[in-house]
Amino acid sequence: RIGLQPSYSRDWVVIAGHNRTRPGDHVCSPLKTLPHWHAAIDQTADTHMPGALHVYLSPHLDDAILSCGGLICNQRQTGERVVVMTLCAGQPASNFRSTLAKEYERSWGTPGEGITRRLRENSLVLAAMKVTDWRFDTPDAVYRGIGGAPYYMQREDLYGSPHPAEGKSLPALWGKMIKLLTRREKTVILYAPLAVGGHVDHELVRRTGELLRESGCEVWFYEDYPYAEVLPAGIQSARERFGDCDWISRVEVIDAATKIGMVKGYRSQIGNLFGCENELACRVSEFTAATAASI
């Protein structure tokens, strides 16, 4: 049954004027001593209503839309309730700016701002779709450390193993908080990243999803975009972390243009990820077409 075995779900993009489909967003789910980080929740959002609540566990402030924007849009258009829960959305300590953190802020065009601009972008994109915005105040990996010493000193460190101080404890903490926040819901469907590409924040959220699945929750795992585009072999590697198990596939038809419009809302990330808006549109469209051809 879904949620007890690994499952694999694909968003498909319909091209106007043609009778062919292209898969876009991909989601998957298996069958098989920290600072006081907590959730910053929009308490005005009434999520306690009949029907399933779809909760997307997003490592950073753009990952859910980059990977699952089309599926999220479909769910909202049919009146389903959707929450994007960003786990690494906390502002860094004012006196903690490693060289790596400063490098990333420059690439975002936000030197010295932390993630203020990114929070604003995410809020606007989600509000436009009437998606509930839940955030934990765990900082991004580039801002985490202890005693002034960062856990991740250089870019290569971000794609290695999570720091021993948080590899097990942080997913356990997040998992408890997610269950607490959704305890009043009759049916909750969780979506977590496969951690394609191996970024430590994605891997920590993947581990959180796996813990929740093992506790009886229904969890689908999605392919992390754009990592799935530039590292196609990483998809199989990510699935192998779950051991020897079968995967169930779902297919969703999505509107590529709508998804591209949502991704464009994260303006601070366009240059770093795509170079420009035209390249963003081309790459998202071409990636979905290439994936369709491979199925």
Which characteristics define this entry?
alpha/beta, 3-stranded mixed sheet, 10 helices, 295 residues, disordered N terminus
Question: What is this entry, summarized?
Answer:
With 295 residues, the protein is an alpha/beta fold.
Tell me about this structure.
- By secondary structure, this protein is α/β, with parallel strands linked by helices.
- The protein is 38% helix and 21% strand.
- The chain has helices at 63-77, 99-108, 116-128, 169-181, 200-214, 227-230, 233-240, 256-264, 267-273, 277-293, and strands at residues 5-14, 21-31, 39-41, 53-58, 81-86, 132-136, 145-146, 149-150, 188-193, 218-222, 248-254.
- Strands 3-6-5-4-9-10 form a six-stranded mixed β-sheet, with helices on both faces. A three-stranded mixed β-sheet has the order 2-1-11. A two-stranded antiparallel ribbon has the order 7-8.
- Helix 1 (63-77) packs across helix 8 and helix 4 (169-181) crosses helix 5 (200-214).
- The longest helix is centred in the last third of the chain and has 17 residues, at 277-293.
- It is globular and about 45 Å long.
- It starts with a strand and ends with a helix.
- Mean pLDDT is 84; it is low at 1-10, 12-23 and 31-47.
Topology:
Elements: E1 5-14, E2 21-31, E3 39-41, E4 53-58, H1 63-77, E5 81-86, H2 99-108, H3 116-128, E6 132-136, E7 145-146, E8 149-150, H4 169-181, E9 188-193, H5 200-214, E10 218-222, H6 227-230, H7 233-240, E11 248-254, H8 256-264, H9 267-273, H10 277-293
Parallel strand pairs: 1-11, 4-5, 4-9, 5-6, 9-10
Antiparallel strand pairs: 1-2, 3-6, 7-8
Helix pairs in contact: 1-8, 4-5, 8-10
